[in-house]
Amino acid sequence: MSGGPKAGFTLGGLVVLGLVVIAVALIVYLVGDYLYVTYETGKYSLELSNRLSSLSRSCIAYIVNNSLYFPYGTYVEYSIPSTVRPGWYSTLNLTGFKGEVLIFTDGCTILVKSTGNATGFEVLGYGSG
Amino acid sequence: MALADIVLEGLTLILVIALGAVLIGGLSYLTTTTASANNARLITAGTYVYLAGPTYINGTLYVPMYNIGEYTVDVKYLFVEGLNGVQEYATNIILKPGQYYVYELSIDYTPKAVTIVVSPTRDPKLVLEFDSNVSTPGPIALTPMSQGSSGGGLIAVSVVDPYNAGWTVSWSYSGQSYSLSKSTSYTWFINPPYVPIQITFSASITQNPTGYACQVVPSSVTNTYNAGSVQAFNVTCSIAPITVSVSDPYNAGWSITWSGAASGSQSGSSSTTFTVQPSSNNAVTFTASITSTPNGYTSCSISPQSTTANPGQTVTFTVSCSGGSSPPPGGGNEYAYVYTDISAPSSVSWTVYLYFNGQLDATYQGSGSQNYGPAVFSSSGTVSYKVSGIPSTCSVSYSPSQSFSISPGNSYTETITITCQGQQPPPPPSNYFCIINPSASDNVGGESGAYVWPSTTQYIPPGQSLMFTWTAQNNPVQYNGETYYFNNWAATLNGQSIQTTSPQYLSTSYTFTCPSDLSSNQTYTLSGEAVYWPRYLKVGGGNTFNVNGNGTYPVTSQYTTAYFYWSDPLFQSGSWSISYQAGGDSFTIGVQLNDFYSESGTATPLSASTTLAIAGPTGYACTINSISPTQGSITSAQASNWLPTSATVSITCVPQSTRNQ
What we know:
The complex is a heterodimer. Chain A is an alpha+beta fold. Chain A contains 1 helix and 6 strands. In chain A, strands 1, 2, 3, 4, 5 and 6 form a 6-stranded antiparallel sheet that branches. In chain A, strand 5 and strand 6 form a beta hairpin. The termini of chain A are far apart. Chain B has 5 domains: about 80 residues, Immunoglobulin-like; about 80 residues, Sandwich (Immunoglobulin-like); about 90 residues, Immunoglobulin-like (Sandwich); about 100 residues, Immunoglobulin-like (Sandwich), CATH 2.60.40; about 120 residues, no CATH class. Chain B has 3 helices and 52 strands. Chain B has an 8-stranded antiparallel sheet with strand order 23-21-18-19-27-26-29-31, with no helix packed on it. In chain B, strands 33, 35, 37, 38, 39 and 41 form a 6-stranded mixed sheet that branches. Chain B has a 5-stranded mixed sheet with strand order 43-48-47-46-50.
């Protein structure tokens, strides 16, 4: 008889320990990656929601004194015919518009028509995203 | 025992390692697949292309795409849903985060909704869809036709350039100047601040095609323009002449003949320069020879003896004589120069003799219009001309006169004009052309103001294309006391129907391509007719549904004389419905038609209805049990005797006395 258990490391114990460490590391990585992606997707979702809300608000427009007034501001990408410079607008002066102008903002598409009477202009069509 | 322990411990160790390896392997596989899935989840959540108000105007679908996501995407396909199903278009547009792009698509049907299929470039296996409805405002009139004088309006400027010569057109108004240069036929619109407005246009050629000399007509024009005015420029080209220069300081006699794209000859005994007008853009071969040697010399030669030249080039012949003691005549003396311009139809050939003091000095032979000279004379005398070889139907006039006096130090130009009876105007210069006679008409007595651009006869060289655009100015129009609405353009080429772009719009176009293998001039008649329809939906006939007893009867003309008839321009959809009460003795048929005019708010939808009373055999009272179906769709834009024949009416008739009990 050798007289009871021996103190110290055995080869088998070392191998088992190594395996346990690798397994724990993989599980931690798995869980961590999942939590990270869940956090990131939630963040994306919130950002997109805010962005969409901002874009839809930028489509609100009124005709005031022969100007197109955007209470929340909007970014005009371009227009057909080319009469509006790209840029951020809170008020768009329509005085130079002749006939019908298609304005592409980053949130929607607005068709403005000059009516030639006292009211000046009217919004003919209005496409939102 | 000790050996058994070791073996047992070894086996246990192997078992543990095996189990551990399986566990680690499983975990690794799970990690890999989960990481891939997580990555896809992340990319999917961060990918978003916003369709900022797709709009369909004037035959063009605008699809604004705004990448508001975190990743670059590839917009692979665009699906457009119309009334007749879904059309697929391959787009392949790369949009970076924050990038905005308006995709334009010319379609001839009304779209309802669009869907784009995108793949993030970081994970092309992922496919996401984004969709949006399409707004359809009224069509933009590209050329406003009925603008009041207080408002501005577009003015069309058109350059017809079948030769693809380089041109530039500049214009100015209100102190501002603009210009446009191209080398093809082109039409554009300018948008002045007000109309009517005075605009000055000037046009010029910047580059001639090889072998051609071109000009723009008109080269300058100032006019007052209104909205819808059209300013047209035509580029006309003629084959550039070949300049022939003869250097003959010895006054030896020489003769030059030419053939190929032009044929003719000229002889003389002095230095001269003349031009040869080729009939096509091909080479002309010149052959030169000496006809006489001046006194004091034994021989003369001319070089080159033969050469070729293309239109626009210059050929120089030099005469040299040898064997004489006297030096070649030098300059310093004053000479009289006589130029001869001959104008004749291109098909007429002629020979012109130039005499000096009664002696033949030069012979000009050729066809069409040619310019010769100068013939150089060193002394005073009388120059006279004689023309021969022309057809008997032609006459000759001389300007200033057939014979005139000359003196050294002066220059003279004689213009000989040969006029022939029955001579057609010369065709434009080239071998063969497609000759297009465009026209525009309508079926409402000209009320539509239909026109075609270009409107005049066009000569299109083989292999080249030209776009013709028809426009109807007025819609609706009054004709024969009725209101007519535009329905479509019907275009024909030599009587055969042709398909134009978007024929259901007031403006439509067709690109004619001249075949490249012409062996003769081909004349085409290109006609466009604006087809207007009256717009009505009416009910005619009686108001009874005649049955002969119990039964189920289809709603056909066999049982009623009522009928619907309609004409619905730009028809889109229609529906019918039948309303009744079970046990009642009448039913009502209603028809509603939707078209472009009602959809765009230009006119109210067409609708009509009629109520038919059930008329049974004498002495019977008939009532309706049921009618099926009670609604349906209508697909035709015109009908003359229509009933909802698919509907059947189930009727019960009872003797009148029974019913009264």
